[in-house]
Amino acid sequence: QVQLVESGGGLVQPGGSLRLSCAASGRAFNTYAVAWFRQAPGKEREFVSAISWGEDSIVYADSVKGRFTISRDNAKNMMYLQMNSLKLEDTAVYYCAAGYKNPRLRILKEYDYWGQGTQVTVSS
């Protein structure tokens, strides 16, 4: 069992930066792939980025590639999403998720555990 709590969301101007954090509790966090998804009002939840449990695979949605960076610190049971050059269309609730060991990283249904979400609003 893994519990996840996101933090770091807020209001930021276009072109600005935010760093989201996801704190995990429960045993064997290091055996889970972790990911970020986001959901804007009236839209489906969409994949943002993921990193495998062995850190041998990192993937990004095309919409964030070159702007966002995912990382994890297994010793601290933490994972992060550094978001730079933020755009209005990045506004959404961001969720962290964990899937045991070897999920298909881009697929929402592969993830077993979810945080409650943190709001990111990009506005001038």
In short:
Helix content is 0%, strand content 49%. It has strands at 3-7, 10-12, 18-25, 32-39, 46-51, 58-60, 68-73, 78-83, 92-100, 113-114, 118-122.
Write up this protein.
- The chain is mainly β and 124 residues long.
- It has no helices and eleven strands.
- The strands form two sheets. Strands 2, 4, 5, 6, 9, 10 and 11 form a seven-stranded mixed beta sheet that branches.
- A hairpin with a 6-residue loop joins strand 4 (32-39) and strand 5.
- It is globular and about 40 Å long.
- The model has no long low-confidence stretch (mean pLDDT 94).
Quick check: average pLDDT? 94
Q: Tally the beta strands.
A: 11
Assign the structural class, choosing from mainly alpha, mainly beta, alpha/beta, alpha+beta, or little secondary structure: mainly beta
Largest sheet: 7 strands, mixed
Overall geometric form: globular
- Strand fraction equals over 45%
Our measurement of the CA-to-CA distance between the termini, rounded to an integer number of angstroms, reads 40 Å
Count of runs of 4 or more consecutive helical residues: 0
Task: Specify Rg, calculated over alpha carbons.
Answer: 13 Å
Query: Stretches where pLDDT falls below 50 for ≥5 residues?
Result: none
Query: In sequence order, what are the helices and strands, one letter per element?
Result: EEEEEEEEEEE
Helix content: under 10%
